[in-house]
Amino acid sequence: MANVRFDLPLHQARADNVDTVRNLLACLPSTDTTIHHTSTAFVGQGSGVLAPHAVDASRSFRNTYERSKAESEAVLLSSRHDVVIHRPSIIVGSSTDGRTVTYDTLYPLARALVDGHVQALMAHPDHRLDIVPSDHVARCLLRLAADGYREGIYHLTAGQDRATSVRELVETLHDELRSMNHPQAATCDIAALRVLPQALLARIRSPMPGVPPPRRLAAVLRGADHLKPYLYGPEVLFDSTETERAAGVRAPSFTRYAPQLWRYAVKDGFGSRRRPARPSRQDQPASDLAELVRRAARTHPDAPALQSGGRRLTFGDLCAALGSGAAQLASHGVVPGTPVAVSPTGTMGDIVALLAATASGAEVHLLLPGQPPARSTAMTICAGTSGRVRVTRARRRGPRPRMEEARTPGVVMATSGTTGAPTWIRHTPEALPWCGAIAARTLGVESRHKVGMSLPLFHAYATGVVLPTAWHSGAGVVLLPEEPRSSLEAIADARVTHVVGVVDTFQGLADSIRVSSSNVPDISAWEMSLCGDEPLLPTTWTGVEETLSRPLALGYGSTETLLVGIAKEPRPAREGMVVRALAGTTTTIAPSGVDTSHLVGEVVVRQPWPTPTGTRRAGTGNEVMTGDRGFVDDDGQLHVLGRMLPRLRVDEAPDGTDAVARKLEIEDVVLNRLQARRAHTVWLQGRPLTLVEAAGDQKTLEVEVSGQRVSVVHVDQLPRTPVGKVSSRAVDALLRDTHRLEW
Hints:
By secondary structure, the chain is an alpha/beta fold. The chain has 4 domains: 10-269, Rossmann fold (3-Layer(aba) Sandwich), CATH 3.40.50; 289-479, Rossmann fold, CATH 3.40.50.980; 555-647, Luciferase, domain 3 (Roll), CATH 2.30.38; 651-743, ANL, C-terminal domain (GMP Synthetase, Chain A, domain 3, 2-Layer Sandwich). The chain is 32% helix and 21% strand. The protein has 20 helices and 34 strands. The strands form 9 sheets. Strands 13-12-21-20-22-23-24 form a 7-stranded mixed sheet, with helices on both faces. Helix 1 (10-17) packs parallel to helix 3, helix 12 (315-331) packs across helix 13 (348-359) and helix 17 (503-515) runs antiparallel to helix 18 (544-553). It is elongated and about 100 Å long. GO terms for molecular function: ligase activity. Residues 294-377, 400-609 form the AMP-dependent synthetase/ligase domain.
């Protein structure tokens, strides 16, 4: 029996596919025997429409499977027997009911899409493949044998006019998943999938030496190794005219039998045939953040949960610490709904205090540095890593954060936006584990990973996404120091696989790598998920500044809606960020009434988890008005333009209608020309003024953008919010105090 694996060593492929043919010939009578041999249409490299001719076995081949099949054909054709060679193309299940015995060829890629392990296409959507159902191949074989054909080469293929595009493959899979109400239908939406260029695919390597790649990356690599020659090379189609004439049958169109094909494969689990298991408690959403830690402690208590400097807490240690802290809070009279403030110390104790308060059911307020607790706060707490909670009752109290619901168990977190004034958001206890489960599944985070976090605990992304995502997967969290060199050493020492931080974090890391490259461990082959305070971007270190720092410097992102998987795919005249939302969410643009070439409006996300209360941007039901601006292009892709932009009223620009697009265009030109790190554009008396952080002695200049003169002013540093973004309020104050600008 032939072996159809593409990755076999040549000697094994020859043993399975060539030696078996020689053994068969040795057993046959010497004369008057007709051999019907099934080969493959992909015998040797070629392009265009290939005719059914004999192949020179010495030509080049894509893999050892093709070479061995060509050599077996040559052995048969050189024998004394009559030989009929049948060359099918890519065989899938039956066209009548989708039934199949083996799940090879295209099925692994389809399964990876359905499971959410890959979010990219390894081919252009219009690239065509020749696909035939198994019953068509069987029908042709029987017809040609029954009609007495004794020699010839026949293509059992779909033919040039019935080839299937990659777009049709994905769209039919997506349509069938939707008809089945499958929870992963969103992961197969052609509009949400990136096209993975061959150059990028070639750079993907194992995340770290000695650490296996995550399932998602491994699926990409396997699919790339097997399918890359067929998906990235020139189209290969086949002339099936002679087969259609001889057998009297023609292959059906793929779109006609695709629903049966995908339905059977999905119901069969792509061959796993596992009996549906009863939902376990581990499969149910956790009740709160503390429950995530308890679950991880039950499954792998000795795995690292928190690490900072030379100290480390396992999940077992962390579970014991939060239990001790919760008991101590109960002794102080804390009951569900009691307002408790957590005072930041910048240590692992902050997280222990958060978990202890969460486990007690308190309404937790994460304070900013120097911020007094609200008047209604019962107590302020901090903790050490042992779980010992220190309770204080501050004399100085500040105003209570504006909340729609009071004394509701949950976590109140701050996000500064770009104004410098924190926006307080209450997340219900169950919302955090829910977000963590979705993000972990979307990003492929696993227990062997380490997540380095360079965000303060009070920031909504740190507590609302990073901690739940890591702990849902059983991954450890490494608290990174602020100093870039120390942070880089901590990343290397702890074998961190994911880094989370604001744009300054990555600019500092890039500088440290550039300046101290000779003393820094070789991390060029790591696959890092580099994140801003909102976006999360799988990338490699080679493109850290190009793919991350500059886009984030423009203010892209959306904290409240937890959009992830942002990739920079700009078009020549349309700069922006293409966003892939979390699985289970749908993202649209609210009409703004502005008639532009691409409608710019406020980004609306419909999410499966409860809408956070207490935010000014909350919509109706599960819809959230994010405060970001964006547009959907002709291909249905969402481009988020950034949170800086809503402050720019349309009447502040000369012509008003394209102020949003013009601001981005100006800042992109300035960032490119000056190699600037940050850029912030305002309109003064109808003229654009851009403030930049840039190296060099030049303090002021003018640039031309789309025929308009733009004044550019160099400042040593643009003012930041507590989480590292440009503060619009502070910029306004800077402009009012003009003597501070160096013109």
